[in-house]
Amino acid sequence: MVKIIDTLLGKSSGSSDDDYMELDLTSYEEHTGGSPALLVKIATISDLKDTPRVKDEVYSGNIVIVDISRLKMDKISYERVLKDLKEVAKDVNGDIIGLGDQRYVVLTPMSVKISRDKIGGA
To answer: 2-108, superfamily in CATH?
Structure first.
């Protein structure tokens, strides 16, 4: 958990598939019943062609955490993708914020705003 938080806040040097762990939440899911009002989805964008799926999720009312670290090498693609994502947030009256030295972007749908105030830490 600490490693994920460090990565999101930009304190970690890199990421790999080993940084993420699937949790077995079947017992929890059995008790919740019904479908959720919104989902938090995880995405990776490595090219401009990856943005439509992310945009569709936000238009569908989901929160999306996007790993954009693979775009950092190509400044033009990086800027175009960020422009597209900002337009989506504006279109749906949602919000967008960068995390972890701009390695991640969080997009929210309508009526969900992201606080810029950090909790804890220095």
So the answer is: SepF-like protein (3.30.110.150)
